[in-house]
Amino acid sequence: MTRKEFLKKLGLGAFGLVIGRSMIGKALAAPIYQNGGNFPIIIIGTGYGSAVSAERLAQAGHQVLMLEMGLDWDGYKQQNPGFKFPKMTSPSKQSTWMNTKPQAPIELGNMANFDKFTGILERVDYDHIKIYQGKGVGGGSLVNGGMTVTPDRNYFKQVFEDVGVNFTEQELDDFFNVYFPRANTNVGRQVAPQDVVDSEWYKFARVGIQEGVAAGFTPVDVPNLYDFEHMRQEIAGNAPRSATNIEVLYGNNHGKQDLTKTYIKRALNTGNVTILPQHKVDHIIENYDGTFTLKVQQIDTLNRDVCIKEFTCEKLFVGAGSLGTTELLQKSKYLGKLKKLNDEVGKYWGNNGNVMASRRSNADFFGHTSRGANQSTMPIRGLDNFNDPVYPFFAEIAPMPTLGSLTSLYLIVNKLKRFGKLSYDGYRRKLQLEWDARHTAHMRTNAEYFLNQMNEHGSKSNFGSKFINNTTFFPNNGVDESICYHPLGGVVLGKATDMFGRLKGYSNLYVMDGSLIPGTLGVNPYVSITAIAERNIEHIINHDF
Ligand code: FAE
């Protein structure tokens, strides 16, 4: 299909020049894309897995339509010239998906209520866990901390082996010699330069490392995808501030190389990709001829239907994230529209062992080592204890950009001992999650051990007072295992799909996101999601087209 034909199908003949990002703002005002229609390839979502798929398919000359339920934030900025993503200390309606209260794990600054809005950060609450997800063109890349970490080869292999999926050594060589390097390059991995590390903005990381080493943990340099040259200029006062301006959880205005600056930008630059934001796929229908129909709601900024559309496609790529993809597939089966969906879908879910933990001094006497009043929001250091036979974990040294001088914050990544399970409850019209304290008990034990060791060997004041587990933020001994930034699993590679993401039982239906990974990685996940997508889409383009 030519570009012209493609635009015509979208009902956009006259709007051909405003295709791509700049057309986006119009979707807020009126339902201009009345037409559904038939398209060769549709991708659901615009997070890591989807963005990789879009760029590679477009480069191979295919026309691609992407449907994203969240806003196009660049378009929103064009329409609202005064708008800036808010700091973590002053959330606004744009920072939160459909809630009147800020949903941040730690309340900092002005936490006043606001109107509902289809904002950038969503929190999905279950009894024992609160799961955070990015919303908008760029998915999780819009809100994440940018930590760009390649997992340990042996653990990566083991994680899949534990669910009965065995990669050959050649496949692992390919992952670690070809696809992880490719993913790292293409997301814009950088290592913080020494002058930036030595600046006041990373005192919290330097102190964290000193204390961690004293406590017996291994220091780790963590790459990030923030543009450190920009940060250098921020620090020098020559560039607009973002990481040094308490921006991250609700979007970064500068410096962060989210997907709209990398994969999605390159995909759009091919001229072969169109993104429709504020288009929420409700369910998928398998047609008799092997094609798929999508029931899609175009929504306004209050998540209300503007109109309902039908799109059909020959090849469908689902990249709506671990929860989003699992829900879409299971809901479609519940509605009787994806009858052959296999029973592996929903299994092997995990929180990637996420636990948050915090410590601070029990008395603000002079003499404790300050973590610095100024802290960059982009983490660059961690402490490794992953091979410890008793307490295996990896702790990211996180910033605490306000109240920070005597407070330390950590995101701890543990192994998983028991998987959770996702299932669609048709009565409540909601994805349910089987997950409770039995899944997280060992994660809490590890985090408490970590804090105790850090307290014992870390900063002591002139009066002998030590740090303690900080119950201001996390009332239960300074540890909160209910916070999850890294949902993984539900449509696991080699179980619910074949070894390349083709959903079992179907042709031309592919899954391309964090749902492919069985619950745990030992490190932050988006490099792995990107690498798996790079590998799978290469194979699919070579074999299925
Ligand atoms: P994701 O990025 O979640 O994208 C899914 C997209 O699909 C979203 O844009 C959704 O709006 C869209 N969508 C969902 N349902 C539908 C539907 N029905 N119709 C249309 N669109 C839909 O998927 N990871 C790291 O590696 N390093 C970090 O430093 C890091 N920090 C994080 C900090 C925070 C606060 C959070 C929330 C996450 C963090 N992560 C981090 C996790 C990382 O962002 C996440 O694993 C990836 O974004 C997941 O990528 P997926 O492609 O699975």
SSE map:
Layout: H1 3-9, H2 24-29, E1 37-44, H3 48-59, E2 64-67, H4 73-79, E3 121-125, E4 130-134, H5 153-161, H6 169-187, H7 194-197, H8 203-214, E5 218-221, H9 228-236, H10 263-269, E6 273-276, E7 279-286, E8 292-299, E9 305-318, H11 321-334, E10 347-350, E11 354-361, E12 381-384, E13 393-398, E14 407-414, E15 421-425, E16 430-434, H12 437-457, E17 467-469, E18 479-480, E19 483-484, E20 488-490, E21 509-511, H13 526-544
Parallel strand pairs: 1-2, 1-9, 2-6, 4-19, 9-21
Antiparallel strand pairs: 3-4, 5-12, 7-8, 8-9, 10-20, 11-14, 11-17, 11-18, 12-13, 13-14, 15-16
The structure holds flavin-N7 protonated-adenine dinucleotide.
Sheet with the most strands, sense and barrel status: 7 strands, mixed
Mean pLDDT over the residues? 93
**SS element count, helices:** 13
pLDDT < 50 stretches: 12-32
Return the CATH class of the largest domain: Alpha Beta
The CATH superfamily of the largest domain is identified as: FAD/NAD(P)-binding domain
The secondary-structure class comes to alpha+beta
Question: Under CATH, the topology of the largest domain is which?
Answer: FAD/NAD(P)-binding domain
Specify the helix fraction band: 25-40%
Q: Can you walk through the features of this model?
A:
The protein is of the alpha+beta class and 545 residues long. The protein folds into 2 domains: 3-75 and 259-349 and 488-544, FAD/NAD(P)-binding domain (3-Layer(bba) Sandwich), CATH 3.50.50; 190-253 and 350-484, 2-Layer Sandwich (Cholesterol Oxidase, domain 2), CATH 3.30.410.10. It has 13 helices and 21 strands. Strands 1, 2, 6, 7, 8, 9 and 21 form a 7-stranded mixed sheet that branches. Strands 5, 11, 12, 13, 14, 17 and 18 form a 7-stranded antiparallel sheet that branches. Residues 44-49, 67-70, 132-135, 139-141, 143-147, 249, 280-281, 319-322, 324, 328, 485-486, 513-514, 524-526, 529 line the site of flavin-N7 protonated-adenine dinucleotide.
